[in-house]
Design a protein that fits this description.
about 30% strand, 3 helices, alpha+beta
Length: about 240
């Protein structure tokens, strides 16, 4: 009986130490963030534009924010910029919190962004697989104060690769719930100023081809390559 009590005490102490390590170390905090502050999954098969003008507010980090009615007034014609014969690519430097858009070797856009804070933005090479003029996003944790429910997120372009599949919902999009660009502020996505996200939306591939939303990439209309690198500053 005494040996069993001793074993139980040792196991309980080990469990307590492990929990303290998780809560107190940077890697432990990242584990908590990755576990509790992720964005909700999406369904790649059914996702399409979702815009509701009656939804005039959202929630970011458990706080209500206004959702402006800008999509209804947006221009829908495709913007033709640069030389279409040059390959387009998007580069995102997490350390500098900048997004660069290239046509071949020519830099055509340079925007400040906000990347992952409550969940890390993945690094690597990706492709845009769908463009949505507006969509709904949600996730996070009410218990941790990171819950968000954001209707009508503007000019969203989801990207993916083999390690981060479509259903994980990582994207580049406009932002109306904060103005703290240049600092990590997201749950993994790339936050942009809405007017700049609009420019990138009409510039990037897949091409719109006369439509305005729910444009999926394909063999004859591939998505723009997205390169994400560096390490975001700690805040």
């Amino acid at each position: 009986m005494g040996n069993r009590l001793l074993q139980f005490a040792v196991l309980s102490s080990t469990f307590l130490v492990l929990n303290l390590v998780i809560f107190l170390t940077p890697s432990g905090r990242e584990l908590i963030q990755d576990t509790f502050s992720r964005q909700d999954r999406i369904n790649p098969q059914t996702i399409c534009e979702e815009y509701n003008p009656e939804q005039v507010s959202g929630v970011f980090n458990n706080k209500t924010c206004d959702a402006p009615n800008f999509i209804a007034e947006a221009k829908v014609q495709e913007q033709v910029l640069g030389n279409r014969s040059s390959e387009k690519r998007i580069e995102i430097d997490l350390a500098q919190q900048r997004l660069y858009a290239y046509e071949g070797d020519k830099l055509v856009h340079n925007f400040v962004v906000s990347t992952g804070k409550w969940n890390r933005t993945p690094t690597g090479e990706f492709r845009i697989w769908i463009k949505l003029r507006a969509t709904k996003m949600s996730g996070g944790s009410k218990a941790l104060g990171t819950y968000y429910y954001l209707p009508n997120v503007p000019y969203t372009m989801y990207f993916y690769n083999a390690n981060y599949p479509m259903w994980m919902g990582y994207g580049i999009h406009g932002t109306y719930w904060h103005n703290n660009f240049g600092h990590p502020m997201s749950h993994g996505c790339i936050n942009m100023k809405t007017p700049e996200a609009e420019i990138l939306y009409y510039w990037a591939q897949p091409e719109l081809r006369g439509r305005v939303s729910s444009i999926r990439a394909g063999a004859d209309n591939p998505g723009t390559r997205v390169l994400i690198y560096g390490q975001a500053p700690a805040y």
